[in-house]
Amino acid sequence: MQSLWVMSSIAMPLEMLEAIRALFRLRASTRQQATFVAEAVHYSATGEQPHALGGLALEVQRSIFDITDTDVIIIPALWRQPDKYLADAQPLLDWLLARYQQGATIVAIGSGVWLPAKTRVLDGLPATTHWHSLAAFKAMFPKVKWQHDHLLTQAGRIFCAASINSGADLIIHLIGLYYGRELALQVEQQFSPGVRNPFEKRVFQADSAMQHADEPIALAQSWLHQHMNELLNLTHLASLADLGVRQFSRRFVAITGETPVLSDASHFGRVFQRWAAVTPGTYRNQVRRKIFVLSPTSQ
Fold it and tell me: Which of 27, 56, 59, 90 is 20 to 30 A (C-alpha) from 125?
């Protein structure tokens, strides 16, 4: 059965990496070079070229088995359940496991998480996938700690994204790790800055236990991370910690060094700049509104 890959989960990472190359070319005076080769390679038990959803054909030059050393492997999403297409994928799984043991970082998007899960390197570790595949993957891989409330997970050198947009967040994060936050922010702003939140604030990490032993405050922090786009209710947060509002506020500040809510504009500005690396005013000028609606008074 011919596999159907989701084109955007392949194209977006390649385009973001190419943007890095373009930024280096613009900085020719610094003589910096983008020290990477990004290419699409494929696996096929029958020798067929891969195809993408919508009837698009993917023309790739090399087999995946031509790659014996690599730093990052990005696994795109397959349409529907991968086990239908990859029943005879043991050579591919062996190759993936060998590259991981060699030190490669794995980035799996959507149903592409099936591949590292199938190699068993995710056993006992957190992972996420597209909601359509989640129930089936839970049944197939019961030892994986599936995170249904998170769109991003990290377990050492294995990153999982539940959706294509979340996969873009992972690529931005990796660009920051390899080439610095400044270049990562430039690429991010080029590829839809109004959508993304910082990777570190959204990911579930295997080693992300709060760096303190105050369990009630850690519980409140976890709730904040999972509901960061909702209106904050201090009374509700205090109830989660089984504390009074004043006691909770004092304890939260003492433990984390931050207030549980943004109580004033100056505090918001400081926090925003720490997250986005620009002031709210600069960000507002850089990002256009998503839609313009003609109001009745302006007609």
Answer: 90
